[in-house]
Amino acid sequence: MDLRHWPLYGLRLRTPRLELRLPGPELLDELASVAANGVHDPDRMPFSVAWTDGKPDEVARAVFQHLLGTVAGWSVRDWTLSLAVLHEGEVVGRQDLMGRDFGVRREAETGSWLGLPHQGRGFGTEMRAAALHLAFAGLGARYAVSAAMTDNPRSLGVSRRLGYVDDGLDTGVVRGAPVTLRRLRLDRARWEERRNVDVTVEGLDACRAEFGV
Question: Could you tell me the keywords of this UniProt record (predicted)?
Fold first, then answer.
């Protein structure tokens, strides 16, 4: 692939078990299929946006279109880096890193999901650690923030293991009902104290300006 016009396709994050990268059409199709095969118990909704509601083909299409939309809508003032997560060459989930006026605020937000067969193996912590390394070590972030429903112990557990601290509560609306979200925040000093996953970054210099830094 010629990366002159969109060098973000050359960005790679690697941990001991995972590789994270912006998916081209083939990988994006795999990612959509992972989502279509399920990412949570259908009786509960762990996300603040109910994007998994719908038939499998509808979920797959929504994932495909959403990720293409993050590329089409990218600007240095408002960006979403939506990376496919691969284990031994197989797509297992998605890790997002988002910035709003990042060049000024130096604050990034994370979000992620894993396919059901790949949960419970520590991948969630490892892929979030990769995104945090990009944010802090690669882009010079001062803070990383996240949020999860108060009844989503897996997501909250990942945040706790990586050093996030409570940052208050929010109320959201999911499936027409109110839900309580716990906000979490991680500053640079605490990230440096708690980091314990080896992460390497490739291809950042070519696309650093795209993040507003």
Answer: Transferase
